[in-house]
Amino acid sequence: MITTNTVLTAAHCLVDSRDFARLASYFRVVGGSIYRNIQTENTFISDVKKIVIHNKYNSKGFLNDVGVMLLMNTVGKNHPTLQPVATTVNVPLNGTRCIASGWGSIYFDGPSTDILKAINISVISKEQCNSASSYAGSIVQGMICAGNMSGGEDACQGDSGGPLFHMVLIVRVLVFLVYIAMLPTIVTGFKKMILL
């Protein structure tokens, strides 16, 4: 959440198999708990009023892969477990430790988790990620690469659209969105997203 009624996510999470935007009524936002399938007294549920996808989104290469969901309901400012997160347009430097989180697969082609998982990963240089043995030049402006070039723990399928956080002076700042989980995770920026 980037405001009390706005959820930032990946555009490819908001489109169908033909890349047409899904209707807002297709979605329901549920938050406020680390449990994916259990409602608690802190669970927040809202239908979605409007979907906005970056006007230059292109699924070929996941270019400008960012969108927002405008919610029907607003999270109360005193909600104990769900609050908007600060955002920044500053790109973290190579080697910066970040946190990716989600309910995605716990291993490649494996089952998803029922409890929110988080992993510390580091930003990797575009040059290294764009090498022939990795993404072969497909990491372009507006994207960063984070993870471990030798594999291991990382974001995975189902974590798409989730956050990549960077700690700045004890404030967790959302810097990018996870959008694909192969090799190191690739994340896309949202600084050029315009809400209509």
Automatic annotation (TrEMBL):
Keyword Protease: yes
SMART domains, per database record: Tryp_SPc
Stated family: Belongs to the peptidase S1 family. CLIP subfamily.
Residue ranges crossing the lipid bilayer per the database entry: 164-190
CDD domains referenced in this protein's UniProt entry, alphabetically: Tryp_SPc
Keywords, sorted A to Z: Disulfide bond, Hydrolase, Membrane, Protease, Serine protease, Transmembrane, Transmembrane helix
Residues annotated as domain Peptidase S1: 1-196
Organism: Anopheles stephensi
A Pfam family per the record: Trypsin
Protein name, UniProt field: Peptidase S1 domain-containing protein
PANTHER family: ACROSIN-RELATED (PTHR24252), HYALIN (PTHR24252:SF7)
GO MF: serine-type endopeptidase activity
GO terms of biological process kind: proteolysis
InterPro entries: Peptidase_S1_PA, Peptidase_S1_PA_chymotrypsin, Trypsin_dom, TRYPSIN_HIS, TRYPSIN_SER
